[in-house]
């Protein structure tokens, strides 16, 4: 099926299932469109009707329009056919609380409580939809922005803040929730996910692995190598690329000349582009991909077409490289608003639900604030802890020197 | 199994075989390690006996080999990966340095990364570019990695056993020009610790410290010096991270002179670290500055020049003479 993604600030009413506009791809802004014209126009990929890399294209899987209308899709509807109103409210709750947590963390960075923060604002549907598609025994390899996925995996969100506050370099036990540590080096974790998935297959387990990365990471060799390895070994891994349009200041056009999901074809496995602001579609498509993996059918690339509404990190200044209109156009496709519209229109949620959630949201913010401010600095000797599992003579020697140095302050009566 | 004379490459092969046999979680991975048995035949016959699931021919992608090995280790496997040649490790350097070395610490000790990376290294076999380098210092400098190199068949067998059993990532440098040197291997002997240096030849006038391919050169130099009435002690370091400074110190306190020998460039190399530490530890024992013999600050030269580049008997003996002249 094909559904055109409406991009204008005043969205047109989608025609539902038959809104195919052959080859017509809409972009978020005029500037983005003109970029595509200038970049892709000169050297066309040569595929008739192929959409440019920057537009969502007619192949975008969408189950919920920006206006909150449910649309049919023969392929992916079965994966959400039995979804209950309670589960839909759950998805909404996840997105709202994740956004609230994210906003709190951003504020805490501004207040000097965190050294840095990478906001997920705008990507809640991609993360909650895919995260809720995973099973408890699946294993997740995130980049550093997957706060919503962490939420779905049951990781206490305050655990995510330790590394940004500077009290540790990771800080949670990856095996507790099958949620690996954040990975800062772009794309490295896609190989770890592939290797882990190779292990899952060797074990004869029917769980699956999901690796998150961004459009910028798609340019990294490690991502290409993970595609090769996963295809060659038929590893049960889902590559979940959140194309949020920007790799810091570089647009997707600087990463690729073809839509990212089409990369998969060259490696011999399917690629799907899903509306990353549609939580139901993200849930359905990820479930489909995970089930393929479980059945032994190998890897899948899911490109969640979404938008990073905020800065890359709190150190970034997006006003230097993108226009306000672009963000505004994407705000019209806000993942939370569209699910709310659907919940309200279908009478799946009442005012009481939204009010309760608002209170819960405030409570979460308060808790995050309090926990972060109370986070103790690590013990000085943490420098030397866990450098090696089996110990190392040099670390032992330097720890002893450090201890002697520290003790020398006590001898001098420091602190009196 | 009784003592048996075998080549160093065969000793590693036997060691890998033992590990595959005793621990179902051990995997061998790399380019050409399967049917071919590796370009040096170190993994010869292993795929035939243990299958493609245990001895895995990989795509030609070093970062992919190490990155997937990390994932397999996270799943509970103990991968032993082969990098075909020293100069080819660099595409994987990012995965080794930014991921493999640090993940245990980042997880506050909750996960372990028992990955062994085998790298045939060093020159002396007349190879082309990127096939003769000695990058051990680049790895030893990185906290979280252990770096070792055997010099003989027995150590090759046992150090590989110990490296595989270690819960830490181990970079295992194999002296490729010693692959065909035969030595006694006693597979039921109880070995010393992986990171302990050993006195390969006792002496009293000067200590030569070396590892991997240079141990043999140093032993030959000591034998030649003996004819001139000099008593040279040869220390086989075996490990570059950690370095067994206690053994070096004990030897230097006895001989009062130290020359460190390695193939890698001298500048900022293993020898520099040893010279600095031993100067700190043994300043009042030393009769001469610690001297270093090694490669030059230049790309590894074409094969017809490697005899000039590599420390040989004469360069080692020249350094011995310079030290003894103080």
From TrEMBL, chain A:
The UniProt entry, under InterPro entries, shows: Alpha-ketoacid_DH_E1_comp, DH_E1, PdhA/BkdA, THDP-binding
Key words, A-Z: Oxidoreductase, Pyruvate, Thiamine pyrophosphate
Q: What PANTHER family does its record include?
A: 2-OXOISOVALERATE DEHYDROGENASE SUBUNIT ALPHA, MITOCHONDRIAL (PTHR43380:SF1)
User: Which cofactor(s) are needed, names only?
Assistant: thiamine diphosphate
Compositional bias, Low complexity, is annotated for: 14-58
Lineage top rank: taxon:
Bacteria
Domain Dehydrogenase E1 component, by residue range, is 93-371
Region Disordered, as annotated, extends over 1-61
Name of the protein in its database record: Pyruvate dehydrogenase (Acetyl-transferring) E1 component subunit alpha
Pfam families attached to this UniProt entry: E1_dh
For this protein, the record's NCBIfam families field holds: PDH_E1_alph_x (TIGR03181)
TrEMBL record, chain B:
Cofactors, names only: thiamine diphosphate
| Gene3D superfamilies per UniProt | 3.40.50.920, 3.40.50.970
Question: Any idea what this protein is called?
Answer: 3-methyl-2-oxobutanoate dehydrogenase (2-methylpropanoyl-transferring)
Instruction: Write out the entry's keywords from A to Z.
Output: Oxidoreductase
Class of the enzyme per the UniProt entry, highest EC level: oxidoreductase
CDD domains linked to this entry: TPP_PYR_E1-PDHc-beta_like
List, alphabetically, the InterPro entries matched: THDP-binding (IPR029061), Transketo_C/PFOR_II (IPR009014), Transketolase-like_Pyr-bd (IPR005475), Transketolase_C (IPR033248)
* Keyword Cell inner membrane in annotation: no
Lineage of the organism:
Bacteria, Bacillati, Actinomycetota, Actinomycetes, Kitasatosporales
> Which SUPFAM superfamilies did the record assign?
Thiamin diphosphate-binding fold (THDP-binding), TK C-terminal domain-like
Q: What region holds the Transketolase-like pyrimidine-binding domain? A: 6-181
Question: What domain of life is recorded for the organism?
Answer: Bacteria
Q: Does the keyword field hold Oxidoreductase?
A: yes
- Enzyme Commission code(s) on record: 1.2.4.4
